[in-house]
Amino acid sequence: MHEHGEDERAVAVKSFALILRSLDTISTAITFVLKYLAELLHIYNEVLKEQKAILNSMTGEFLKWEDIQKMKYSWCVASEVMRLTPPFQGAITTQRYPTKQ
């Protein structure tokens, strides 16, 4: 037993669930961003306008940190999507597993 009253198996199961379920968080977040952009065309148009402005202001072939910092509206959209549909839901459960006695 650990100091918080959980046995090693329960801690191992929760740790494994945390690792396993965190693998798909990025793809889930991107999927929901695309879903909301497809449904809300006025937001899609604002994101597109912002991205085109950044593309037109670029001096090189690759994005620089300064270019990414200009993506304020896109960042707000991504943050709001993750607030509405968090990509990491329910990884920590309170299910109890039988212990050997």
Automatic annotation (TrEMBL):
This is Beta-amyrin 28-monooxygenase. GO terms for biological process: secondary metabolite biosynthetic process; sterol metabolic process. Its main location: membrane. It is found in: Membrane. One of its GO terms (cellular component) is membrane. GO terms for molecular function: heme binding; iron ion binding; monooxygenase activity; oxidoreductase activity, acting on paired donors, with incorporation or reduction of molecular oxygen. The keyword Metal-binding applies. The keyword Heme applies. Gene3D superfamilies: Cytochrome P450. Keywords: Heme, Iron, Membrane, Metal-binding, Monooxygenase, Oxidoreductase.
